[in-house]
C-alpha cells in the first residue's frame, strides 16, 4: 500500500498513526522532532520532509500490510515511482488544510492509466483551519467520478470526537481515547441521508448486478453486506474511490479496515510485463510462492557498515537467504546503468521497519524485503532463478533536466569521487552522470535543486567526499564568417633533417549543419599525394581545438589549392602543422562566429498557464512554433530555445506552473550567438 500526496499532506504522520493502531510501535513519532519511523535519514530529520521511499510493515486482522511512505516533493519522483511499482494499491493523502496540488492530480491520472486501485484519506481534520466538506468537494472535482466518502467526521466545540460510518450508520466515538460504537444523534440524520445516498448510488453504478439500481430507486433497502461486497469489487477494479478522514487519534482503524477488506490482495494485482533475457514475452507467471522467482529491486541504498542494501518486491516465487539469483539490468544505459546479467549470491533477507532490519526466513510472492550483499544489483534490476533468467520491463522515469556542474574540493576528494558517484547512480535512476568531453566538466543531471542538494549532502555525509558547484559551461562552436585564402608555412632548418611544408588553403562557411568538407585541388604534384591527407588531418585537429575561443569549429569547407614540398625535409607531421597554421591565419583574416546550441523544447502544461509559458519562452530568445491541445485540460507548447537560456528551466517552469508543467528537450542545431552575448559567454 503506497501513500501518495504532496509534501506536508500528512503521509508520514498517518503511517505513525497506523503503526500505533496495530501496536507495531508504542507511541507515535513526530516529523518536527525527527522521531518518526519513516523519516530516519539525516537529511529528512534536518529538512523535516521525506526524501526517500521507506517501508513500514504492520499486521491487522492477521493480514500483513506493507506501508510505503513516499516523498511528496516533485524532485524525488524516482522514489515515488518506485513506491507505485512495488504497491498493489494507493492511498492518496490530502490535507484538509492545504487541499490538492497539481502534482497529486497528475499522479492520480497516472494511476488511472494502469488501473491501480485508489482511495483518498483526508488528513488534519482536527486542525483549526480544516474544512472536510470543502476538501471533499475539491477531491471530487480533481479526481472525477467515483469519489465518495465512507465516513463523516463529527466535530463538537471545534474538536473531532469521532466518525460516522455511512454504510454501517454507526458513530465511532474517539472522545475517550479509544473507539466505541454508538448510534449517531438525530441532528446528523439529514447529513447522513444525503451523503449515504450519494455513496450507495456510486457503489451500485459499479455493481455487476444491474438490478440493484432499480431496486434502490424503487425504495428497497439494499443489504449492507451486498453493498460492502460491491464496494470491494469496485475498488479492486479501480472504478470507485472511497474517501476516509483522519486526524490525531482518529481514523487509523478505519483506514486499516479499508485496506484489509476493501483492497485487492497481491494475488489480484496484474503482473508487470515479463520477458526472457533475449526479449521473448513470458505470460505464464503469476503471484505464486511456488512459481519461478521474479523480483525487482525498487530501491538501493549504501550503508557505510553493511554495504549495499536492496529493497526488493517479490512478484513470483520465494526469496531465501544465501540463494543464488540472476541479476538483470537493461534499458537505463543512458543514465549510467550499463546493461548487465550476472549471477549473485544474496546475503541476509530482512523485513525493514524504517531503519530497523528485522531478520526474515524468506520473502514470498507479494511481499517486500531488504536483501544484503547484492554488489551488482541496481535500482530497477530484476532478480530471477539463475537457471531461468527473466527480465521485467523497467518502469517509466522522467528525464532529469537540471544540470549541476561539480568539482572535487581537494585531490583526496577527487580520488574518492568516482566511486561515490557510481554508488549514487546505482541507487537513483533519476540521476544521470555526464563527464562532458568538450567542457571537461562533471555534470549531475538532477530533477531539481532539492534533489541536487540531497545528492551533494550524501556525497559529503555518507561517502566523505566534499564537492562544490561550479558555473555550468554550455558547449559552443566556432565557424568562419566569410570566405578567404590563407597560407600555412612550416619551414624550419636545424642540424640534420628539418621541416618543410607550405600549403595554400581557401576556407568558406557552409550552411548550418553542413559539417566539414575538405577539397583537394592540387595539380602538378606541388604537394605530393601522400601529404594531402596530412594537411586534412592538421586542419581537422585545429578545428577540434578551435581558432578563437577554444570551441570546435563546424560548417566549414577547406580547399587545398597550392603548396610546396621538399624532397628531404617534408614529412607527414610537417604538413599537419602547416595545415593547422593555415587555418589559424584564415581566422585572422575574416571574422569568426560563435555558434550556440538550440534545442527543440516541448512543454506540457495546464491550460491556465499556457500564456505565461509562451511569454516566458519568448523572453528566453525562444521561438514559439505552436500549441497543441492534448486533453485533460493540458496543452503542449513547442518552441526552439537556445540552451544557454534553459539550463535552469526545470526550476522556473515548476514555479510558473505550480508544479504541473513538464518539458522535454532535444538538440536541434547551432545558430550564431548574438554579438552582445559573446563577451559574456567567453569572458
TrEMBL record:
Gene3D superfamilies referenced in this protein's UniProt entry, alphabetically: 3.30.230.10, 3.30.70.240, Elongation Factor G (Translational Gtpase), domain 3, P-loop containing nucleotide triphosphate hydrolases, Translation factors
Xref: CDD domains: EF-G_bact (cd04170), EFG_III (cd16262), EFG_mtEFG1_IV (cd01434), EFG_mtEFG_C (cd03713)
UniProt-listed InterPro entries: EF-G-like_DII, EFG_II, EFG_III, EFG_III/V, EFG_IV, EFG_V, EFG_V-like, P-loop_NTPase
Listed SUPFAM superfamilies: EF-G C-terminal domain-like (SSF54980), P-loop containing nucleoside triphosphate hydrolases (SSF52540), Ribosomal protein S5 domain 2-like (SSF54211), Translation proteins (SSF50447)
Entries under Pfam families matching the protein: EF-G_D2 (PF22042), EFG_C (PF00679), EFG_III (PF14492), EFG_IV (PF03764), GTP_EFTU (PF00009)
Domain Tr-type G per the UniProt entry, residue ranges: 1-267
Lineage: superkingdom: Bacteria
UniProt keyword list: GTP-binding, Nucleotide-binding
Protein's recorded name: Elongation factor G-like protein EF-G2
